[in-house]
Amino acid sequence: ASVSEPAQKCCTENIQPFLTSILEELMGPVSSGFTEVRALFDKEVNEIIQDFQKTNDMTRLKENVDQLMTLPFNSVKMEPCYLKVNLLQELLQDLKSRFKVYHMDFVIQRTQNFMQELMENAVYTFEQLFSLSHQAESAKVATTIEKVKLRVLK
């Protein structure tokens, strides 16, 4: 009871007025990182479609889809996504000094983990939806892949 009132006053006067601007600043790099994840997924699936249209090879298509499933764990391909979030390091340094917030690396690491998780969910969902319709005739496979991709991105 003796701490509650001063703590609430401190939060109301020293933290709450800045929360909106802090969130806006932080959301820029976070949003661009997640946008990059989306773009990477889109690009990889488009490459699968283009390869299938050139080869019309169902075995190679399966290999490409299997390869897509490893995308979240491919640090080279995921790196551009992670780099977008590294911009938080500079923004968080300002918060660290103003509000005595520590463990900034944890915030960045958790954001990157969420990005990897999002990619895992996207490729898993793609694989599940595509495997259901995989029996389609080969002339419609590219169209089916595109529809599944759009559904996952939605």
UniProtKB/TrEMBL annotation:
<dbReference type="InterPro" id="IPR026088">
    <property type="entry name" value="Niban-like"/>
</dbReference>
<dbReference type="Pfam" id="PF26086">
    <property type="entry name" value="Niban2"/>
</dbReference>
<protein>
    <submittedName>
        <fullName>NIBAN protein</fullName>
    </submittedName>
</protein>
<comment type="similarity">
    <text>Belongs to the Niban family.</text>
</comment>
<feature type="domain" description="Niban 1/2/3">
    <location>
        <begin position="9"/>
        <end position="154"/>
    </location>
</feature>
<dbReference type="InterPro" id="IPR059060">
    <property type="entry name" value="Niban_1/2/3_dom"/>
</dbReference>
